[in-house]
Amino acid sequence: MRLRRYLGPVMLAAMVAGAGMLYPQAGPKKESGDTVARPRKKGEAAPEAAKEQQLPRIPSKMQKKPGEAPAEGPTFRTDTLTVNVDVAVLDNRGRFIPGIPAGNFRVLEDGQPQRITNFNTGETPITLALVIEFSNLYQQYWSYGWEETLTACYGFLQTLKPEDMVAVVAFDLRPEILSDFSTNRQDTYEAMARLRVPGFSESNLYDALTDTADRMSDIEGRKAILYIGSGMDTFSKITFDQTRRKLQTASVPIYALGTLQSLREWYDSRGYMGSIERLDFLQADNQLRTFARETGGQAWFPRFFGEYGGIFRQVNEALRNTYSLAYQPTNVARDGKFRKIKVELVGPTGSPLKITDEKGKPMKYQVIAKTGYQAPREVE
User: Where are the domains of the chain?
Assistant: First the structure.
């Protein structure tokens, strides 16, 4: 959604000023071959048009080997297929519930119970990719809010453990790896410092998420994507349904932070938003919720900047506090089909597990886990 499509420039400027937001000066324009937040050096020739669709060639855990074809599903080293599932159990206030024994977890694949072969609750280092929408589509109307968002991100990075690895990926027309996975926080801070003046007014969300998840699919251990942006997609090469399937196949949990709630409420309260605009925002929120739910992550939509601190604490807790399960499917067919996963908590008799709070009162809870995976396909 482009706000200029609905509002005249004079009215839009007045709205931004009335909301207490700073309207930034226009930054340097980027040519079609430039990547996100990377100004071309003086005297440097413009890239060929053919390079427009190429991804940054950075030697990285996130970079596929030259000539390597994209995998259709998970890569398995043996004939025995093992499916890993990270599970979070949250109370009605979004807090992690610890101490649940392995025997109380039940995993169903396409409705059939599976035998859990591995269960782990210990903390392990995290491999985290920050995927940040950096598009002129919204940042130019939300300068003050963008600075607040970056400040909250810096605070979140300081809460990570020294052994955690972090990469930063920014996107508009296409994703760019601003910093590779590293335990050196200075690399991450320098990458974040480049996110000041956006260029293109496109936001190819689907391409950015699937590209990053695919690059991370072979990384072992606990891993996740933290997405920060509007949740809108303008010009991706793939569809919403294709994105869902690719993200489920990559098995990388997505934690999403939608950043436009306060701006939307400000427009709506003053009658500047019609049914089409509301639908665009609603679709963006639903997309982020879907990606998070189906990959075993979570989504947040803060209305005030004061909520950021609490949300980032929840993100950190969600990354740390998960139950790691593994099972070998009873369905051994290598047919490339999608298989549904459901994780339940059950008592000794097989009925739903009852959890009580510190006062002994029954407590509502939710189980968060990815909803499925793509089975490998037999190579002929």
Answer: 83-123+322-374, 124-320
Beta strand 165-171 with 112-114 is unpaired
CATH of domain 124-320: 3.40.50.410
Give the C-alpha separation, 233 to 202, whole Å: 8
What are the structure tokens assigned to 124, written together?
A: 């392990």
For residue range 297-328, what is the model confidence (pLDDT) as tens digits? 999 998 888 888 888 988 888 888 888 899 99
Give the residue-averaged pLDDT of 115-133.
89
Per DSSP, the three-state class of 153 is helix
Contact 93, 132 (CB under 8 A): no
CA 264, 266, 267, 268 torsion: positive or negative? positive
Tell me the angle at which helices 205-216 and 240-250 cross, rounded to the nearest 10 degrees: 20
Neighbour tally for 241: CB within 10 Å:
9
Distance CA 114, CA 342 (A): 10
| CA–CA separation, 143 and 47 (whole Å) | 30
Residue 277 tokens read as 């605009």
* pLDDT tens readout for residues 360-378: 888 899 998 998 888 888 7
Q: How far apart are CA 182 and CA 201, in angstroms?
A: 30
Provide CB contacts within 8 A for 53, sequence distance 6+.
174
The residues near 1 (Cβ < 8 Å, ≥ 6 apart) are 232, 277, 280, 281
Structural tokens at position 378: 């037999």
Angle at CA of residue 87, ends 84 and 88, nearest 5°: 160
3-state percent helix, strand, coil for the chain, nearest multiple of 5: 30, 25, 45
In angstroms, what CA-CA distances link 374 with 94, 110, 248, 356? Answer: 29, 12, 7, 36
> Are the C-beta atoms of residues 64 and 301 closer than 8 Å to each other?
no
Helices (H) and strands (E) counted in the chain, each on its own, are 9, 16
| 299 and 288 Cβ atoms separated by less than 8 Å | yes
Quote the pTM value: 0.71
